[in-house]
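User: Hi! I have a protein structure encoded as tokens and I'd like to know what sequence might fold into it. I'm fairly new to this, so please keep things simple.
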């Protein structure tokens, strides 16, 4: 079952913490520092999956 609102986590986590975030059903994560093109691509992918 999908949530009504997808979750995109922007964090300074390392890769081990990122795996934990995905385990708790975070849809996607972006590690700081962020690249606006990456944010745009991830948001578009999440929206495509949830439409």
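Assistant: Happy to help. Inverse folding works backwards from shape to sequence: for each of the 51 positions I chose a residue that suits the local structure. Here it is:
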């Amino acid at each position: 079952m999908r949530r009504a609102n997808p979750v995109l986590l922007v964090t300074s986590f390392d890769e081990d913490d990122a795996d934990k975030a995905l385990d708790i059903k975070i849809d996607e994560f972006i590690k700081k520092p962020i690249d606006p093109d990456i944010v745009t691509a991830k948001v578009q992918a999440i929206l495509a999956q949830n439409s």
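A useful reference point when you look it over: The chain has one domain: 8-43. Feel free to ask if any position seems puzzling.
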